[in-house]
Structures are given as structure tokens and as C-alpha cells.
Amino acid sequence: MRYKRDKIKVNSRLLKGARVYAGMTQWDMANALGVNQATYAAKELGKVPFYAIDILLISERLGLGFDQINAIFFENKLRYQSDNMVAPNGYSLTQNEV
Fold it and tell me: Residue 74: which of 2, 4, 7 has the closest Cα?
């Protein structure tokens, strides 16, 4: 079965706000992701897509919770149900699978 790769549409304003609130510069974030500052800036502006590992590293570095990650990277489309995270396509991932 093939899955459609949806382009992640980042909320640049929220991401920048979270980064600045955490006292991080674009250079700091670029260093954490292993890219140069220009590439991170393009990602933050939505011109270059984020990879799943980028989202994980950013959320750890900025201390983002589920609601913040959902708002910044997924347009609030993820649903959280007790011990399950449900994607917009209906796929459910339980904590046992993580």
C-alpha cells in the first residue's frame, strides 16, 4: 500500500515565537538539526519542508508539548485520544507501538 506524502505546512509565526521564547536563535536551531542557518531559516518560513526527525529534535530542544507540535506542524489535525495518537487518515499509533 502506498501512502501519500503530505507536505507539512509549518505555522512560521508559532514556530518563531516558540524559538524566541526558548531563547534560541536560528543558528542554534540549525546547529541542532545539522543544517546551516540559511536552510533552517527557509524551513522556518515554510520554503523547505521539515522531516519527522526535525520535528522531534525541535520539540525536544524547545520543550514543546503535543498541542504545540500539533498547532505548529500539523494545523491542529492530529487528535489525541487517551493512549493513542490518531492521524488525519485514521491511522492510530498506541504507546505500545512507539
Answer: 7
